[in-house]
Design goal:
alpha+beta; Pdz3 Domain; 2-enoyl-CoA Hydratase, Chain A, domain 1; 3 domains; 6-stranded antiparallel beta sheet; 13 helices; 20% strand; flat
């Protein structure tokens, strides 16, 4: 009997939701079905139990829901407690290890060095792009990003033969250039300190400093035996990321590569804080000179600020997606182009190689997907991740941490994962491939370094057959020739389109 009643109760609870709120006739129908289905000896019990269930089960259901909700809350609390407990247990392992090393290691060890080594090791486990930036490196990192520092404006490197500091080139319009420092000079002294066997970092540290203060230099010009003493007043040095192919006679970059065909050439070395502003200024200058085609050289450009990649991409397309990002703790975001300020009306080629990465790939992929630019060169590096700079120690040091990944407008993957194959989808694949051999890369590096020297008199005598640039020029000349064959009614000069963009930009302002 007990067994029968339990079964009946179970059935009643199952049917309670359906029976509650039925009319008398509907209820009678359900009870008849029960009498037909179950043994008549205990059907009466079943009916009464069903009545009770209809009246009482809602309360049971509410109690059951509350119990279920409480169980879920208890489970979540237990999981959090377990996670917190694991966190503190792991921290305890780290602290114990740190203490044991400091107390029992065979030699004395600097605590800070030990901690920084632990941080570097932890971040190395994540990916190649996350890193710890210690205090002594943070200033240089910020200088690169901000594109300015207090100094005299020279590029230097160690000189093995004399074991001193060699001037590669003064930067245009800087205190060093004005004071007469030349490419090839040997720096003999800085602030009274002999530079023989001086670490390069020490020499740079002595030459940098607040703008307006004076630094004393003693240099020996190439081919001369006497030293020249110079008192040079430091200034805020603006490090340009927008370069031309060579310096003109006025000591400024020449951005018009082919005067006959009016083809402009812009070399972007990084995406720093002022890159977009510099590029816009250069494009305006080229426009005034009648530019009809443009080569944007992103070879060897390692990337930089995402904001600058978006700004520069937006300069060349009027609408559509530029790039999209998504991370674990950052909301998905998409950047789109706007029409105002767009430079259009001329064909464009982007040069990339195996060392073009990150922001370089954002720009080249965007303009390729929108068919705004033809891409020539080699498959790019394949870095489709975004790093945030997180301050540590109240800004004394920093953490560069990968927080998101990005995708090109077409949705295709950019990032080259560790196990990626050549046949997989990653990087930016050129529309026309022209790959340099290792020897060509070495020769190009030597040629480019020499060509970038600001010198008086003759140009560089080093020659190099830049096949990638030649392909870019060939494509542009073909495009320009096809444009010239069109009826005049179908043509719209680049100046007019740029003028329209300038008007739109002015209205927007």
């Amino acid at each position: 009997m007990i067994q029968h009643n339990l079964l009946t109760l179970k059935a009643c609870r199952t049917l309670a939701g359906r029976l509650r709120g039925l009319t008398a006739g509907q209820f009678e129908t359900q009870t008849r079905r029960l009498r037909m289905r179950f043994n008549p000896r205990w059907t009466t019990h079943a009916v009464w139990m069903l009545v009770i269930a209809v009246l009482v089960v809602p309360g049971w259901a509410q109690d059951s829901d509350k119990e279920k909700e409480k169980a879920e809350e208890d489970k979540a609390a237990a999981a959090k407690k377990t996670a917190d407990q694991e966190y503190f247990e792991l921290m305890q392992v780290f602290v114990d290890t740190f203490e044991q090393v400091e107390r029992n290691y065979v030699k004395d060890i600097d605590r800070r060095k030990l901690m920084e080594a632990a941080l570097r090791g932890m971040l190395k486990e994540l990916d190649p792009y996350s890193s710890y930036i210690p205090p002594e490196e943070l200033t240089r990192f910020n200088d690169r990003v901000q594109q300015e520092f207090g100094g005299i404006g020279i590029q230097v490197q160690p000189e093995p033969r004399t074991r001193r500091i060699l001037v590669i080139s003064p930067l245009p319009n800087t205190p060093a250039y004005t004071a007469g420092v030349r490419a090839g000079d040997i720096v003999m002294e800085v602030e009274g300190e002999d530079t023989e066997d001086m670490p390069l970092s020490r020499a740079v540290e002595l030459m940098k400093g607040p703008a307006g203060e004076t630094v004393k230099l003693k240099v020996r010009h190439m081919g001369e035996s006497d030293d020249v003493s110079l008192d040079i007043e430091r200034a805020v040095i603006q490090v340009s990321s927008v370069l031309g192919d060579k310096y003109g006679k006025d000591g400024q970059w020449d951005f018009m590569l082919d005067g006959d065909d009016h083809i402009g050439y812009i070399r972007l070395t990084q995406f720093g804080r002022k890159s977009g502003e510099e590029l816009a200024t250069t494009l305006e200058d080229l426009k005034k000179k009648g530019m009809k085609g443009l080569v944007l050289d992103l070879r060897f450009n390692p990337g930089g600020l995402l904001s600058q990649a978006v700004q520069i991409s937006d300069m060349f397309i009027e609408s559509g997606t530029i790039v999209s990002t998504e991370g674990k703790n950052s909301r998905a975001r998409t950047w789109s182009a706007t029409k105002s300020g767009t430079y259009s009306g001329f064909p464009m080629v982007i040069l990339v190689n195996r060392f073009s990465a990150s922001a370089s790939e954002i720009v080249s992929a965007c303009l390729q997907d929108h068919k705004r630019a033809f891409v020539v060169g080699e498959r790019s590096w394949g870095k489709g991740s975004v790093q945030n700079i997180i301050e540590l120690e109240s800004g004394a040091s920093a953490l560069k941490l990968t927080t998101a990944g990005y995708k090109r407008p077409s949705g295709k993957n950019i990032h080259r994962f560790p196990d990626a194959k050549e046949t997989d989808e990653w990087g930016v694949m050129p529309d026309e491939v022209a790959r340099f051999s290792r020897k060509e890369l070495e020769d190009y590096d030597q040629y480019r370094r020499d060509r970038d020297i600001l010198r008086e008199g003759d140009e560089s005598k080093i020659k190099f057959d830049d096949r990638q640039l030649a392909k870019a020029l060939e494509h542009l000349r073909t495009q320009l020739a096809a444009e010239d064959k069109k009826p005049d009614a179908e043509k719209k000069p680049a100046e007019d389109k740029n003028a329209d963009a300038a008007v739109e930009k002015k209205k927007a302002a």
